[in-house]
């Protein structure tokens, strides 16, 4: 091991390296390589890799020992101290420190690793705005499942950063194609959107409203018609029952009991008496009853 004063010097050096160390990225499930600037002919006497102050692997000049969750996932080059880490996990993120005892000198190298997901294909949505009667515009929104990604819109030879983009709609503008590119340091994906789809999306919303409202109106109309038919049948049936119940079989009985009174009935008086009944009931059943009454009069020779 290095003497105390060497360790103190290493700690100062560590602080300086951490302050100026750039971030290293690795894709989840993939492999990352840490390559310190050590030549193979230098042959380190001692190698120690640590992750967040926990040992990863140690080489004492004769053999190596792998620690904890890094077993079966790392490869250490004894000549260059290069470390290969496979099957990256989110918990593998953090500081990696390499302490090398080389030619009686201790050296320290520090790497900052961040494990990230591969960017998935983004989705583009459109929201129309018709508040201005002179023109119709749309607001495109690009979204991705992964956090900390960069958004870039590409259209008609132009670029615009950010997840949202305001566009114009109508006529020639509907033919414009917009591309949204999302990216992180190791991957990127692109989705495209045609302005016409934004207009059709608004039309689809209107069609959806009509498809819901029209059937409801039709059902309401049918219910109203059915209620009217039921009411008329019930109302006419009630009146017919009232007429038949309160009107005695007078015409026929009068024919038998007092034929003279029937003879004295003039056609004008008959029309005067029967016309209110015809005005009250203008249906087939009323006509049948009147015809039966006339047939009875004729049959009796009146």
Automatic annotation (TrEMBL):
<keyword id="KW-0812">Transmembrane</keyword>
<dbReference type="InterPro" id="IPR003599">
    <property type="entry name" value="Ig_sub"/>
</dbReference>
<dbReference type="InterPro" id="IPR013783">
    <property type="entry name" value="Ig-like_fold"/>
</dbReference>
<protein>
    <submittedName>
        <fullName>Chromosome 2 SCAF14781, whole genome shotgun sequence</fullName>
    </submittedName>
</protein>
<keyword id="KW-0472">Membrane</keyword>
<feature type="signal peptide">
    <location>
        <begin position="1"/>
        <end position="20"/>
    </location>
</feature>
<dbReference type="GO" id="GO:0016020">
    <property type="term" value="C:membrane"/>
</dbReference>
<feature type="transmembrane region" description="Helical">
    <location>
        <begin position="208"/>
        <end position="231"/>
    </location>
</feature>
<keyword id="KW-1133">Transmembrane helix</keyword>
<keyword id="KW-0325">Glycoprotein</keyword>
<dbReference type="InterPro" id="IPR015631">
    <property type="entry name" value="CD2/SLAM_rcpt"/>
</dbReference>
<keyword id="KW-0732">Signal</keyword>
<dbReference type="InterPro" id="IPR007110">
    <property type="entry name" value="Ig-like_dom"/>
</dbReference>
<feature type="domain" description="Ig-like">
    <location>
        <begin position="122"/>
        <end position="194"/>
    </location>
</feature>
<dbReference type="InterPro" id="IPR036179">
    <property type="entry name" value="Ig-like_dom_sf"/>
</dbReference>
């Amino acid at each position: 091991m290095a003497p105390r004063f060497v360790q103190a010097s290493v700690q100062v050096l560590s602080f300086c390296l951490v302050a100026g160390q750039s971030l290293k990225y690795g894709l989840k499930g993939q492999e990352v390589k840490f390559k310190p600037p050590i030549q193979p002919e230098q042959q380190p006497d001692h190698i120690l890799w640590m992750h967040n102050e926990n040992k990863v692997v140690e080489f004492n000049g004769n053999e190596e020992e792998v620690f904890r969750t890094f077993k079966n996932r790392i490869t250490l080059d004894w000549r260059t101290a290069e470390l290969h880490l496979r099957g990256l996990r989110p918990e593998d993120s953090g500081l990696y420190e390499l302490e090398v005892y080389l030619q009686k000198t201790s050296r320290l190298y520090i790497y900052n690793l961040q494990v990230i997901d591969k960017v998935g294909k983004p989705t583009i949505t459109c929201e129309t705005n018709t508040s201005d009667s002179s023109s119709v515009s749309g607001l495109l929104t690009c979204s991705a499942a992964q956090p900390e990604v960069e958004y870039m819109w590409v259209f008609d030879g132009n670029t615009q950063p950010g997840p949202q983009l305001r566009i114009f709609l109508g006529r020639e503008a509907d033919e414009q194609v917009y591309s949204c590119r999302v990216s992180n340091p190791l991957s990127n994906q692109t989705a495209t959107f045609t302005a016409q789809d934004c207009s059709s999306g608004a039309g689809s919303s209107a069609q959806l409203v009509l498809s819901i409202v029209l059937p409801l109106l039709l059902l309401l109309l049918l219910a109203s018609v059915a209620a009217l038919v039921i009411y008329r049948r019930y109302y006419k049936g009630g009146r017919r029952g009232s007429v038949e119940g309160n009107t005695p079989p007078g015409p026929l009985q009068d024919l038998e009991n007092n034929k003279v009174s029937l003879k004295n009935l003039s056609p004008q008086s008959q029309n005067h008496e029967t016309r209110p009944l015809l005005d009250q009931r203008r249906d087939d059943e009323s006509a049948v009853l009147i015809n039966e009454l006339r047939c009875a009069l004729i049959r009796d020779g009146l």
